[in-house]
User: What shape does this take?
Amino acid sequence: MKKGHLSQYFADFAYKRLSAVEALRHRSNQHEFDGVAVLKRMLGDERQTFPTSFIYLTDDDPEPLSDTGFLTWYDARERHPVRSEWRLYFPDTVVSDNANEGDLLIIGRRQDGSLMVIIAEAGSTMENQLLWLFGATDLLHPGFSVKAELESDQVRLEFASRYILEQLGVEVEDTAVNYLERMLELFSGRFPTTRVFSDYARSTLDDLEWTADPDGALLAWLEREEVLFRTLERHVIGDRLQAGFEGDVDAFIKFSLSVQNRRKSRAGSSFENHLEHLFGLLGLRHSRTAVTEGKAKPDFLFPGQREYLDAAFPDLFLTMLAAKSTCKDRWRQILAEAERVDVKHLVTLEPSISIAQTDEMQSRSVQLVLPRGLHQTYAPAQQEWLSTVTDFTALALDRQRQADALS
Assistant: This one.
């Protein structure tokens, strides 16, 4: 097991597509996965019951469905003198109730010996992300394919990998304790505003050559802020947990929700903060959350709100950029923003968005923008259409120069 690799979280894993009898309860009551013979490599040759977490992922729900239970691995012919027939039994869960034929199934063995059953809706972005992360390519045969720890070690966790793991509820252990004392001193042991924290994160990378690679710089800033935030968070939360809640369940739930909400709101604000800083370095004029029609507030408007509201300013020099750290189905919200802009740009950090989703974006005149380092998670045909952050800023700067030349 190598630190910073997939094997740090999964010793080994197996994957396949669900068959009808596995997924549809009215077709079968067997409650067993098919094609399990190869799982002996992973689960051994003795009867065992594994504590198991179950998770179902679909693009339609912002939060995954999850449950806990067990998987039972046993030989149905253990008394037979020569024959064996291994089976893997699963109980009814909210996850099995939602699974469908053709969905992607991944069973991962965690380092503590427990199992994780991950099911992703067929054709979804979540399925795409899991296929990329786990390198699941041979899905044509009906049985499981198994990858061992040695193969997991080859998958080094970068920005996209960590993002996907956290969608699964796998807490990625990545901290920078050497910065903790300085942060406690600067922020008095509390969380500063997101803008202040973004500024601090960038200051720890002051030797970064952003001019040579704006896409790489943006990802580096985001990664550094994430690591620093988790370092400070672990300290602050640790102190609160150590103080205890004295049996007050409501206080504990309130605290837990505040932690989750802080993480979600900070991620989006951090993304916008670093983009805004990059635009400033490039001399790219813009308005952040400017008001256009009605109550619409696009994240970034170029060259600004004043020009947008000036009917005499040419439409072809206006550019709109929506920034969403994660997309899911929420990207359609931007269609009603900035009516004067025909092609709307959307920058995201979400890897492996499904082909169906990107095809719809193209048909709705939405241009997807991602830092170059995330393009590899997309299919080759999608990559031909994607824009980089560098591409986008070059376009906006060119329009700014043309507009200035006319004034």
